[in-house]
Structures are given as structure tokens and as C-alpha cells.
Specification:
By secondary structure, this protein is an alpha/beta fold. It folds into 2 domains: about 90 residues, Ubiquitin-like (UB roll) (Roll); about 130 residues, Cytidine Deaminase, domain 2, CATH 3.40.140.10. Helix 1 crosses helix 6, helix 6 packs parallel to helix 7 and helix 7 runs parallel beside helix 8. The chain is flat and about 55 Å long. About 30% of the residues lie in helices and about 30% in strands. It starts with a strand and ends in a 6-residue tail after the last strand. A 6-stranded mixed beta sheet has the order 9-8-10-11-12-13, sandwiched between helices.
Length: about 270
């Protein structure tokens, strides 16, 4: 399997002097996702936990909705040398087969950039027809929210060596970090976490909260909604569409979480 980081030559310049060195940078490679043997998408991602990424991506694309619709996820052998290790075939069954046909009719096969996600393809109204709101009638202390970024940062192993990866963390309500994923794209990191829980038949995640590095977009809130996560927090700002979706779907949305200060943009009643 390709490593999530690699060493590259670099010239360091400081105080008017320069010297050659080596630096660790985050790896970014394309991964082709095939469904039932046919090409479906190409995702730019950081290698690692590819099966989970593929599962989470297909959940977000509304191809699969439960673990029993995921039959197998295997590396493809009929690829070029370049594609070896970067091509997965997902075998699906049940009602997912019909949804696959519908999705293929709705979308073009495009390369998903690491920052892209679904690019707002689904509207809030479309989402409401499938998942109206999340469950999770619980509250959480503000003090716990404030500790999440540090707990996530302490577990970012690849970031320590590269400084160039986003991260997402799935936490219990007491602030315990259960799962972490790193990737060049926030969307991919979230898909890796949700994909793992989907493969473990653990959805919905109604007793969990999600923290992401960077900003919160519409697509990230959408992924939380589809996975049943009632609270999403970020170290930076949310977009206006992310706030609108969170407000309409019952998700508590926190932004600029830095120490004991943060903003709550939707459903503040969960924060005590």
C-alpha cells in the first residue's frame, strides 16, 4: 500500500541563507472507484483506508444506504502498473443496484478534487425527502466542545510529519476520540470515518459528534446528516448553506472552536 506521506528534496531559506534538505509531504493520488465492475468516480485522496473511503463515498452519493448492500470491496487486478493499488471495485446488491442506475443517469463521471465533495449537487429539499432530521435528544457541556481540537491534534500522526493534511475525528458524547482519519481533503477524511462505521453496520451515529479541521461546507453537514450525526464542529468557519442545512435538519453546528471560545450557528440547545 502507498504510504500517506513521502520524502522530497527541499531548499530551506532562512535569514538570507539557504541549504538543501528533505521534507515530508502528504501523498495525493487518484483512486478509481468501480461499482459492480463499471467505472463510477475518480477521487483524489491520501492513500490509506481506501475501502472505508469508497464505502463512505458511496453512502454520500446515495448509492448504498446500509451495510448489507455492500457485498465486497476489493482491489482490481486488471489495471495498469500506475493504477495498481489505486483501483477498487465495490460489489453492491439489493436496492442499491437500482439506485446506482439512477445515480449514473444524474451525474457525469468526473474527477473529484480533494476539496470538492459533492459540490452542492443535491439541494436541501432533495435531502429532506430522504433524511428529514437527525435523532439525538441529548446535551453536551461547552467545556467538552472546547477540548476536541487538542484531542484531535494529538492523534494526527501523519500531520506531525507533513503539516499538510486535514483531519476528522468522531467523538463520544463525553469527548472520547473513537476514530480519526487524515487526508488532503476534509471530505475524504469524513468519508473514511463514516465509511468505517457503515462497514461495521454502526449507523446511525446518533450518540456521536464530528470535528473537522478547517471550515465546514454544505457537503460536510450533508455527510453528517446521512450518517445521523447530531453535532458537527470545526476549527474554522461554516458556509451559509452549511448553516441552513444544519438548521433545517436538527444538527448542532459549531465553528471557530479554539480553546474555551467557539460559535454555535444552529441548534444551540444541545450546548449547556
Amino acid at each position: 500500500m502507498t504510504a500517506p506521506s513521502r520524502s522530497v528534496p527541499v531548499v530551506r531559506i532562512a535569514a538570507g541563507a539557504r541549504h538543501t534538505d528533505h521534507d515530508q509531504v502528504a501523498a495525493e493520488e487518484p483512486m478509481e472507484v468501480r461499482v459492480n465492475g463499471s467505472p463510477f468516480a475518480v477521487i483524489m485522496r491520501t492513500p490509506g483506508r481506501d475501502r472505508e473511503l469508497a464505502a463512505g463515498f458511496l453512502l454520500a452519493e446515495d448509492v448504498v444506504r446500509s451495510s448489507d448492500e455492500l457485498l465486497t470491496i476489493e482491489e482490481c487486478e486488471d489495471t495498469t502498473e500506475e493504477g495498481r493499488g489505486n483501483t477498487l471495485n465495490v460489489q453492491i446488491g439489493g436496492d442499491a443496484i437500482e439506485r446506482l442506475s439512477t445515480r449514473l443517469g444524474e451525474r457525469r463521471q468526473v474527477t473529484m478534487t480533494a476539496s470538492c465533495g459533492l459540490c452542492g449537487r443535491r439541494t436541501i429539499e432533495t435531502l429532506r425527502s430522504r433524511v428529514a432530521t437527525v435523532d439525538g435528544r441529548w446535551t453536551i457541556a461547552a467545556e467538552i466542545i472546547g477540548t476536541l481540537p487538542l484531542r484531535l491534534r494529538e492523534s494526527q500522526a501523519v500531520f506531525d510529519s507533513t503539516g499538510g493534511l486535514h483531519a476528522a475525528g468522531l467523538f463520544d458524547r463525553d469527548g472520547t476520540l473513537r476514530h480519526i482519519a487524515e487526508d488532503v481533503g476534509r471530505h475524504n477524511a469524513v468519508d473514511k470515518i463514516i465509511g468505517r462505521r457503515l462497514m461495521e453496520d454502526a449507523l446511525p451515529l446518533s450518540d456521536s459528534l464530528l470535528l473537522v479541521s478547517g471550515r465546514t461546507s454544505f457537503e460536510l453537514v450533508q455527510k453528517a446528516l446521512l450518517a445521523g450525526i447530531p453535532l458537527i464542529a470545526a476549527v474554522s468557519a461554516p458556509s451559509s448553506l452549511a448553516i441552513a442545512l444544519a438548521q433545517s435538519s436538527g444538527i448542532t453546528l459549531c465553528g471557530f472552536v479554539r480553546g474555551d471560545r467557539f460559535n454555535v450557528y444552529a441548534h444551540e440547545e444541545r450546548i449547556t
